[in-house]
Automatic annotation (TrEMBL):
Gene3D superfamilies: 1.20.1270.20, 3.40.50.2030
The protein's name in its UniProt record: Hydroxylamine reductase
GO biological process terms, semicolon-separated: response to hydrogen peroxide
Residue sites binding [4Fe-4S] cluster per the record: C3, C6, C15, C21
Cofactor note: Binds 1 hybrid [4Fe-2O-2S] cluster. Binds 1 [4Fe-4S] cluster.
Source species, domain of life: Bacteria
Assigned protein family: Belongs to the HCP family.
Reported cofactor(s): hybrid [4Fe-2O-2S] cluster; [4Fe-4S] cluster
EC number(s) per entry: 1.7.99.1
Modified residues annotated as Cysteine persulfide in this record: C399
NCBIfam families the UniProt entry points to: hybrid_clust (TIGR01703), PRK05290.1 (NF003658)
Species for this entry: Romboutsia weinsteinii
Summary of the function given for this chain in its UniProt record: Catalyzes the reduction of hydroxylamine to form NH(3) and H(2)O.
Length: 545
């Protein structure tokens, strides 16, 4: 196997024996094959569009879900990948029939199994020949993978928007065209241009999800969220899918079962639509990587709606359920009945037999500072900047992770001068959202916009400030970007910020292993991308001291 798509990749170079995340070599090669077949299908759908034919929403959704399923920590169930590969081949087979100019299709687009022979054996054989390292040139490989990881991140956001009935043909067409272009012999310059274009469409994807979320559930508003527990049996919901949460909340009404959020589901509390459920108690625990201890002490069933899954301990594996793109062998998967609500009754009945969660924390945390709420406070914020009460904003969005080196972000938040404000989104917030860093004239020093996709809000806030202060360039604002990354959704956030013209973004705790030295050089020279060093020196650097 060879996988280097996340920040925790072995030795900062690549997982070759077993994934640090728990991905086995067999799972890795089936994920490689699924990406390969999906590229082939994308070439076919792109050809069909070019010939003026329509591509159905089902095919778009299949491609989106295939990408999402291969995101770090989303799905560890080998069988799901065999099934998805077979389903994708079947769809590709039928669509190829509709292509007029079939002679120009690539080897990847036309590759298929022999239906008269054992399918799994053929898939196993093929899967060992389609990995990342088949691209020999390290710069081309680096750019292709950078683009593919951006598309994987985008697919997550599209999937959530799709679940709420929002879609966009231009975004689907772009994603598929771009996937298919990673099969072509594009030059480094062409791939760099495609990378930026991916960032542009990344902004569109995040805007679509923002529209889907806020239209369906209202605009996030300032909210205090309890981190303690009540004395009822309960279900813990993790991941990012608000639709799943909504369905679970509806189905738990009157059952005596409470619902808590975990990790990236915390921002659900900020939406007005969820406030009417009095069994929606609060947030339990911290970022994804602490789940082994926290799922144990929760006592009740856990529903994983997306990543990030840590391979569960046997002590609570039977209490862990998955749905959507998430999956784990041995955990019950709740399927979607087409066009109908998901049926969570099994989890609810399970919860009733469990003891209430064990209290691990008490108190409250505050959040809900997405664009609409911050813009409602704009006068206050602008005044604070004008009077010098706020000297600088630090965008510290992104992901949390296991590495000890990430304590840098806690230390960094603690060491920031008191006249600075942290703008955060994503699970990175758990490194400093319980530090009680105080406020500046009533504005909390940590403003949480929401999930990783709500980084879009942070970009909108920056653009608004640029307008208010009548600046030509977003980089003239008193905003620094010190972003923590882990998986591929952070990649699309990064590419989107680059597209919006943000310079001097610092990425940590390490730069991506998939960036070759030459590609890193391009990013440093054109965008001022940098890594992190130590808290003291970095704060001086950011403050221009
Ligand atoms: Fe955190 Fe994991 Fe949000 Fe990432 S819970 S690292 O999926 O997308 O952020
Ligand atoms: Fe390794 Fe990350 Fe890939 Fe898992 S997702 S195999 S940890 S690089």
């Amino acid at each position: 196997m060879f996988c280097f798509q996340c920040q925790e990749t072995a030795g900062c170079t690549g997982c070759t024996k077993f994934g640090v995340c728990g991905k086995s070599p067999d799972l890795a090669r089936m994920q490689d094959l699924l990406i390969y077949i999906t590229k082939g299908l994308s070439e076919v759908t792109t050809k069909l569009r070019n010939e003026g034919k329509l591509v159905s929403g089902d095919v778009n959704n299949l491609i989106t879900l295939n990408l999402f399923t291969t995101i770090t920590n989303a799905n560890f169930d080998d069988k799901i990948f065999y099934d998805r590969v077979k389903m994708t081949l079947q769809v590709k087979r039928s669509l190829i029939e509709q292509v007029e100019n079939r002679g120009c299709l690539s080897e990847t687009a036309i590759w298929d199994v022999d239906l008269s022979k054992d399918l799994d054996i053929q898939l196993d054989q093929k899967s060992t020949t389609v990995g990342i390292l088949t691209t020999k040139d390290e710069d081309i490989r680096s750019l292709r993978e950078l683009i593919i990881y951006g598309l994987k991140g985008m697919s997550a956001y599209m999937k959530h928007a799709n679940a709420l009935g929002f879609d966009n043909e231009n975004i689907n067409a772009f994603m598929q065209d771009t996937l298919s272009k990673t099969l072509e012999n594009l030059s480094v310059d062409e791939l760099v241009a495609l990378t930026l274009e991916t960032g542009k469409v990344g902004v569109d994807g995040m805007a679509l999800l923002d529209e889907a979320n806020t239209t369906t559930y209202g605009h996030p508003e300032v909210t205090s969220v309890s981190i303690g527990v009540r004395n009822n049996p309960a279900i813990l919901v993790s991941g990012h899918d608000l639709k799943d949460l909504e369905q679970l909340l509806k189905q738990t009404q009157g059952t005596g079962v409470d619902v808590y959020t975990h990790s990236e589901m915390l921002p659900a509390h900020y939406y007005p639509a969820f406030k009417k459920y009095d069994n929606f108690v609060g947030n339990y625990g911290n970022a994804w990587w602490k789940q082994k201890e926290e799922f144990e002490s929760f006592n009740g069933p856990i529903l994983m709606t997306t990543n990030c899954i840590v391979p569960p301990k046997d002590t609570y594996k039977d209490r862990m359920y998955t749905t959507g793109a998430a999956g784990y062998v041995g955990c019950t998967h709740i399927d979607e009945e087409s066009g109908e609500e998901k049926d969570f009754s099994q989890i609810i009945e399970h919860a009733k037999k469990c003891t209430p969660p064990m209290e691990i924390e008490t108190g409250e945390i505050i959040g809900g500072f997405a664009h609409n709420q911050v813009l409602a406070l704009a006068d206050k914020v602008v005044d604070a900047v004008k009077t010098g009460a706020i000297k600088k904003f630090f965008v510290m969005a992104g992901c949390d992770g296991r590495a000890k080196s990430r304590n840098y972000y806690t230390d960094f938040a603690k060491a920031l001068p008191k006249d600075t404000v942290i703008l955060t989104a994503g699970c990175a917030k758990y490194k400093y959202n319980k530090l009680n860093l105080g406020d500046i004239g009533g504005i909390p020093r940590v403003l949480d916009a929401g999930q990783c996709n709500d980084s879009y809000s942070l970009a909108l806030i920056a653009l608004k400030l640029k307008e208010v202060f009548e600046l030509q360039d977003i980089n003239e604002l008193p905003i620094a970007f010190n972003i923590a990354w882990y998986e591929q959704k952070a990649v699309i956030v990064l590419l989107s910020l680059l597209y919006l013209g943000v310079k001097n973004i610092h990425l940590g705790p390490t730069l991506p292993a998939f960036l070759s030295p030459n590609v890193t050089k391009v990013l440093v020279e054109n965008f001022g991308i940098g890594g992190i060093t130590n808290v003291e020196d970095d704060i001086k650097m950011f403050l221009g001291e």
